[in-house]
Automatic annotation (TrEMBL):
It catalyses: L-histidinol phosphate + 2-oxoglutarate = 3-(imidazol-4-yl)-2-oxopropyl phosphate + L-glutamate. It comes from Acinetobacter indicus CIP 110367. It comes from the Bacteria. InterPro entries: Aminotransferase_I/II_large (IPR004839), HisP_aminotrans (IPR005861), HistidinolP_aminotransfase (IPR050106), PyrdxlP-dep_Trfase (IPR015424), PyrdxlP-dep_Trfase_major (IPR015421), PyrdxlP-dep_Trfase_small (IPR015422). Keywords: Amino-acid biosynthesis, Aminotransferase, Histidine biosynthesis, Pyridoxal phosphate, Transferase. This is Histidinol-phosphate aminotransferase.
Amino acid sequence: MSFVPANEGISKLKPYQPGKPISELERELGITDIVKLASNENPLGCSDKVKEAVAAELAEIGRYPDGGGFILKDQIEAQFGFGHERITLGNGSNDLLEMFARAFVSEQDSIVYSQHAFAVYALVTQAINAQAIEVPAKGFSHDLDAMAAAIQANTKLVFIANPNNPTGTWFEEAEFEAFMQKVPANVIVVLDEAYVEYFPENFNSLKYLDQYPNLIVSRTLSKCYGLAALRVGFALASVQVTDYLNRIRQPFNVNHLAMVAAVAALKDEAFIEKSREVNKAGMAQLEAGFKALGLNYVPSRANFILFDVQADPAQTFNALLKEGVIVRPVGIPNHLRVSIGTEAENAKFLTALAKVLGLDAKA
């Protein structure tokens, strides 16, 4: 029996590398006092109301979830004002990003995305063997003018992120409006807002959904809502776009406990506000720490900061592991990304960073 190779895109694909788990570092180095600041998780965990809601539904584990996701779509509609027919549920937003590409892009088409953007954009493009058009970043930010100019006749989809991961940079509404006016109506624009809840005053994307039928807004409950382990995301779009997405969506892609947790998380506004407060305080703590160490960083509107280690990032990353601190290499020369943790976690990171770089904090 001869070997049948995978399609060209898959055969050349390098899998996405998630942040290093605590358990893996424990096995490798035999240390237990570990701080994980690699995956932009909520340091508060999840809301107590989420835990209560999930515990009350444990008896339902033996049954399939509602494939239509009625209870979660109902809560999304109540909170954001878009009907069920405009909502697509995902197993985290990564699931949605893959759906967007599969629904609208063929091997003969191209996808546009920015340099220094979320790694999954390139991965889903390669997985379907489409043409990748990576537009050079402007500093560490999306160059929206250049991205609009890069759209070709065969371009079917553009990925943009606000705020951007891994750089934390963001764009304003005026920049977005100017960009959308340049994008042809037959090109889907995916606005990835995985971190929008941390600074919601920065940008109101939802008001553009009726104006631009080719716009998809993608969100996740893994970050500010603290449901990373349960994998829940959702997309808002026109009725037509949503119809196509739900034709290829797996019928049980969001499990019942995840939907129950998501409904409780969306309702708990007090927890979200507390998460914002902890994030803003932690960001100020890390910014002050970087300044004291004489290190440059990229201002962020997310729950992480990209910073310049002034050295080999791989070497610094590995040295921090030995100090029990997990951060994230992101493929940008001289830079690492650190998630914002609790006050104690941030302090441990800054102490370890000073030690491995041989720096003294300036008062």
